[in-house]
Write a structure and sequence with these properties.
By secondary structure, the chain is of the alpha+beta class. It contains seven helices and 19 strands. The structure holds zinc ion (ZN). The site of zinc ion (ZN) has 5 residues, from helix 1 and helix 5.
């Protein structure tokens, strides 16, 4: 018998979100619709004849402040928080309808998605879930930025950030079970420095930003506190990472280490992983060796690249 946790899932009922895009400021209505087993996560622009863009690495567009998808010139922007919530909640198949180009920023975290999915319910489907099981290390380094993925059971993420005051260095490590995502990662909000605000607004990059959807930082601390966690910043980077690595098309089985990374590094890792077909295999969940002692290989693997200079 196959345990339900090893089967694909979709949402039980349609969900609707309204809001504005963080970067574009564009108003948007977004609906999540149940989708057939094996169909994956597919975005649909209802304002453009229902043009569809699957959430896979091949469709990643230019990446700077957010991750965007593009196919045949049609854009879907700022996908990372929703994709993070879907991976975190174990949703494999869903159609995401949007009537504009950017997803709503909501409160700057993935919590509204998690709460709505929990309220609507999750439907188990008749298809065994597959994950991308990492077989060999794949790494991307750029100056002192680093990201790598290593073989290992489960989906573990270790992240180090190093930002100007008041953040400084923070690091965290999480074993991504469905139970922990909603509690430890989903509520962490995006953030920005007040000193950058005018420049970014003048460049038209944060038209939808407000104290309701981002932590605003001054050298003394957050202007619109209190924080949801003392290390909310690094937790938000983990949230972004999970959303960006979702573009591999399936949940990863392996250990990810990131240092001073961001959307460009996250998506570069996806591209490198997809290109190196010998570095991974599609495997049913759980894998045959997932019961092995996790303490032996994991710690050696996770510690190695951290705090090494470029
Ligand atoms: Zn983010």
């Amino acid at each position: 018998m196959v345990h339900p946790a090893h089967l694909e899932q979709t949402v039980s009922a349609p969900l609707e979100f309204t809001g504005v895009g963080l970067h574009s400021g564009a108003p948007v209505i977004m609906r999540l619709l149940p989708a057939a087993a094996g169909s994956g996560i597919v975005f649909r622009r209802t304002d453009l004849d229902n043009f569809e863009i699957p959430a896979i690495g091949r469709n990643v567009a230019k990446v700077s402040y957010a991750t965007s998808l593009m196919r045949q010139g049609v854009l879907i922007s700022t996908t990372e928080h929703l994709l993070s919530a879907l991976i975190g909640m174990g949703i494999d198949n869903v159609i995401v309808e949007l009537d504009n180009l950017e997803l709503p920023i909501l409160d700057g975290s993935a919590l509204p998605y998690v709460q709505a999915i929990q309220e609507a319910g999750i439907r188990t489907q008749r298809r065994r879930r597959e994950s991308i099981r990492v077989l060999r290390p794949v790494e991307v380094r750029e100056g002192n930025k680093f990201i790598g993925v290593y073989p290992g059971s489960g989906y573990r993420i270790q992240y180090l950030i190093d930002f100007p005051a008041p953040i400084g260095q923070q690091q965290t490590s999480i074993d991504l079970a469905a139970e922990t995502y909603g509690i430890f990662i989903a509520p962490a909000r995006t953030f920005g420095y007040k000193s950058d605000e005018k420049k970014l607004r003048d460049m038209g990059l944060i038209r939808g930003a407000s104290p309701e959807n981002a932590i605003v930082l001054t050298p003394k601390g957050p202007e619109n506190g209190p924080l949801r966690y003392s290390d909310e910043y690094v937790r938000h980077k983990v949230l972004d990472l999970i959303g960006d690595l979702a573009l591999a098309g399936r949940r990863i089985e392996g250990h990810v280490v990131a240092e001073r990374a961001g959307h460009a590094m996250h998506t570069a890792l996806v591209a490198r992983l997809m290109k190196d077909r010998s570095a991974w295999e599609l495997a049913h969940v759980p894998t045959a060796n997932s019961t092995r002692d996790p303490s032996s290989s994991q710690h050696a693997t996770l510690r190695r690249p951290v705090f090494q200079g470029a």
